[in-house]
Q: What sequence folds into this?
């Protein structure tokens, strides 16, 4: 096999994952407490270095499982971050992903590559390592745009839901209230959902249950 010498520096490549869920109408993100330097003890996004035998998508999925015990989540790349000084060790370029899961469908487990893993409210983020706050802000904006164009919202919902529930998820992601009448008109016009013919019954007035069309 021929050997090549490159005249340019070869930076390390990583994948970082902004993993979102909605709990009690609150958008939350998964953070891990770093177990080693740099920023040992600080909160950070799950992620890690790309191996020679894997793609970035495979790297992101592997790191999410190793650091938080999560597999099979919706996973989507949205940006790259490449400032020369973003990692104090050496030049590191990262591919950033957002991942989604319904809180009803997953119980968080601490993985082997982090001291701890916890859901944090987007309204009360702790001090973060590296440039992870910037990555998180861009991830939320990317997710908001994606949800208005494609039916990714279902990854944050149970299999059956009311119109109020789906609106609460949109409001949690966007960080602002939405007009009820306009929202319902918009979501029904997309034809992403259909009635199940069943009602949710509880303390409030019965509401129609919907599912993905």
A:
């Amino acid at each position: 096999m021929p050997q090549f010498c490159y005249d340019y520096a070869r930076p390390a490549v990583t994948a970082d994952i902004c993993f979102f869920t909605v709990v009690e109408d609150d958008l939350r993100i998964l953070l891990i407490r770093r177990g080693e330097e740099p920023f040992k003890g600080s909160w950070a996004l799950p992620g890690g270095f790309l191996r020679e035998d894997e793609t970035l998508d495979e790297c992101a999925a592997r790191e999410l499982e190793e650091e938080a015990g999560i597999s099979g989540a919706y996973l989507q790349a949205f940006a790259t971050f490449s400032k020369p000084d973003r990692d104090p060790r050496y030049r590191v370029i990262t591919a950033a992903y957002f991942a989604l899961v319904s809180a009803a469908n997953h119980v968080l487990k601490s993985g082997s590559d982090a001291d701890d893993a916890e859901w944090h409210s987007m309204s009360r983020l702790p001090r973060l390592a590296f440039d992870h706050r910037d990555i998180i802000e861009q991830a939320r904006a990317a997710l908001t745009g994606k949800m208005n164009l494609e039916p990714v919202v279902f990854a944050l919902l149970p299999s059956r839901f009311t119109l109020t529930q789906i609106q609460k998820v949109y409001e949690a992601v966007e960080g602002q209230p939405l007009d009820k009448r306009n929202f319902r008109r918009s979501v029904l016009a997309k034809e992403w959902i259909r009635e199940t013919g069943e009602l949710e019954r509880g303390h409030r007035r019965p509401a129609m249950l919907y599912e993905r069309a």
